[in-house]
Amino acid sequence: MGLTTSKEYAELEWPIKIAIAIVWVAFAVNLFGTIVKRREKHMYVAIWFYIATVVTVAVLHITNSMTMPAGWFKSYSMYAGVQDALVQWWYGHNAVAFFLTTPYLGLMYYFLPKAANRPIFSYRLSIIHFWALIFLYIWAGPHHLLYTALPDWAQSLGMVFSLMLIAPSWGGMLNGLLTLRGVWDKVRQDPVLKFMVVAVTAYGMATLEGPVMAIKTVNSLSHYTDWTIAHAHGGALGWNGFLTFSMLYYLFPRLYKTNLWSTKLANYHFWLGLLGMMFYIIPIYVAGITEGLMWKQFNKDGFLQYPNFLETIIQVVPMFRLRAIGGMLYILGVLMMAYNLYRTAKAGKFESDTEAQAAPLEKTPAVAHGKLSWHRMLEGKPMFFTVLAIVSILVGGLVEIIPMFLVRENVPTIASVHPYTPLEVLGRDIYIREGCLGCHSQMIRPFRSETERYGEYSKAGEFIYDHPFLWGSERKGPDLAREGGKYPAAWHYNHMDDPRSVSPGSIMPRYSWLLTQNLETDTLPWKLSALRRIGVPYPAGYENGPAQKDLQEQAEKVVADLKLGGVNTDPNKEIIALIGYLQRLGTDIKSAPVTTAAK
Questions:
Q1: What is the DSSP secondary-structure string of 210-269?
Q2: What does the pLDDT average to over 412-433?
Q3: How many other C-beta atoms can be found within 10 angstroms of the C-beta atom of residue 433?
Q4: How far is C-alpha 88 from the geometric centre of its chain's CA atoms?
Q5: More confidently predicted of 352 and 324
Q6: 227-250 pLDDT, tens per residue?
Q7: With contact defined as beta carbons under 8 Å apart, do 333 and 269 qualify?
Q8: C-alpha distances in angstroms, 531 versus 70, 214, 488, 541?
Q9: What is the average pLDDT across 197-208?
Q10: Which of 106, 157, 360, 455 has the smallest CB count inside 10 Å?
């Protein structure tokens, strides 16, 4: 609907962010209240991961959601440019880690031993896995920003800690797989264990590939390509999806006191899901590597082999079609599971309440291998355990984020960089609303292949007034950091109306409504006032009169430029603001060429 902050995994606007925080706090109170009141004082490893999940997601969500409202459905990030990018990916990477990794590890530690009817392989390994994982993971966010305008020290920290993450991640994977020692014959027959084995293996593969992609030389090829998408979906479909399926197949027969309606159908689901996952992921890997290599390829004369960005897109479109087939197979498997579980529920009777009684509370020493175990004692003190977990996850974030705000040399300013004009502010908001940054980056990395294609590489000081930053994560279209003045206004007008009219073969959708929808200027005072409160140096009272005058003057200039290209339109249309914003991009540190119809 266009109501978005544009920040990945944090798109929801401020009223919903607050609602999420309230619900999460209520959930946390219930969780910790249950842990404190329970008569079994020892906390099993699964609960450790649940505790880390609850406290870390809260810290991440609140920190990254610091925004200045500019209306009920619009807000601007409190942070700007490089600082906003660091906070966002400290959040974005770890929101995935502590929402899709640590809670699922807790589920693995509970359900895998249950399904295999075996104790977890190593208690000591689970301790190392937990503490090393939550301490190291939080540092790895900057690996999403390698070779960007982020200071090199922060990039290096992200890379080094990402590589260290291999050890605890694979320790957890091995702890899960080795739990199956002696029961591998059951894997052939039990669909629950089949799904679990693939899930744990997918976890291991994803947590190996992530650190490899954090190596700068690898990242120079993979970043902004579909390779990153393939990596993410390997974890989502394999680890999260298959572990969820295994849990549901385990739970339903026990909830309804019956056998699974069809083991054969569950096995069909397994193979269909596995096949769908391969058809989904492998073509994206092919597309990603193809994109990265084509973008960097030079011919024997030293010129870009594929200077037209569309040449790359045309090559990878068949991979998108294969990906769609894989997705349909995966979803078909889910539908088969839903039918199987429905028939299972119909065949049994749901037992809503089961009498259970905890053993009498006894004060027993924490003993491991004949010696007093400090960690065993810690597992009986949930609040102290929680405090240590919070300290563990805070260290990395504080070390990376605080210097970025306190040391001015991390974000050197550029005298020629000025705040966006009122028309450009509205145009930028339209750019965000329409999701343009989902396909277009605004970050030129310091590679010859990029500076030849797009222009001067991006500097940290260019983004000091960007609330939020719009560097993007993928390029399904060319980078726009130096788009200003590259094409005349009429080109942008026709491109938004019908991209294929000026770029044959483009897969960009049409945005024809921008040509007819009137520009909403009533919200401008709120927006400029909000931006001034978070540091953009608009003069006091500017939004109450002068801003509207400046908006109209710039809009008239854009209309005049359009007339040079044979386009007649009103200055109060949304397309005018968007063109004003696009023609501004990158011009603060370069002289914009003259844009005429003859160009």
A1: HHHHTSHHHHHHHTBSHHHHHHHHIIIIIIIIHHHHHHHHHHHHHHTTS--S-HHHHHHH
A2: 95
A3: 16
A4: 9
A5: 324
A6: 999 999 999 999 999 999 999 999
A7: yes
A8: 8, 34, 29, 13
A9: 96
A10: 360
The predicted structure's pLDDT at residue 595: 46
pLDDT classification of 371: cutoffs 50, 70, 90: low
Query: What angle separates helix 45-64 from helix 382-406, to the nearest 10 degrees?
Result: 30
Of 50, 76, 10, residue with least CA distance to 529: 76
Question: Average pLDDT for residues 187-214, to the nearest whole number?
Answer: 95
Domain made up of 422-589: CATH architecture: Orthogonal Bundle (1.10)
CATH 1.20.210.10 domain residues, the chain: 14-257+349-402
The pLDDT assigned to 366 comes to 56
Cα-based torsion angle of the residue sequence 7, 10, 14, 15 in order, rounded to the nearest 10 degrees: 150
The C-alpha atoms of residue 491 and residue 499 are separated, in whole angstroms, by 10
Q: Is the pLDDT of residue 372 over 60?
A: no
Helical ranges in 455-514 per DSSP H: 489-497, 499-502
Tell me the per-residue pLDDT of 9-24, one tens digit each, with 9 for 90 and over: 999 999 999 999 999 9
Mean per-residue pLDDT, 50-64: 95
| Sequence ranges of the chain with CATH classification 1.10.760.10 | 422-589
Cβ 139 vs Cβ 161: under 8 Å: yes
- What's the CA angle centered on 260, arms 254 and 261, to 5 degrees? 140
**190-191-195-200 Cα dihedral, nearest 10 degrees:** 0
Q: Which helix (H) or strand (E) holds 396?
A: helix 382-406
Q: Rounded distance, CA 383 to CA 385, Å?
A: 5
| Whether CATH 1.20.210.10 fits 14-257+349-402 | yes
Q: Say if residues 217 and 184 touch (Cβ distance below 8 Å).
A: no
- What single-letter DSSP state applies at residue 68? E
Characterize 34-64 residue by residue with b for buried, 16 or more Cβ atoms within 10 angstroms of its Cβ, and e for exposed. Answer: ebeeeeeeebebbbbbbbbbbbbbbbbbeeb
Ordered alpha helix ranges (H), 415-466: 422-433, 448-454
Q: Collapsing DSSP states into helix, strand and coil, what is residue 492?
A: helix
Model confidence at 363: pLDDT above 70:
no
d(Cα 270, Cα 192) in Å, to the nearest integer? 9
What type of residue is 467?
H
pLDDT at 369: 53
pTM for the predicted model, two decimal places: 0.92
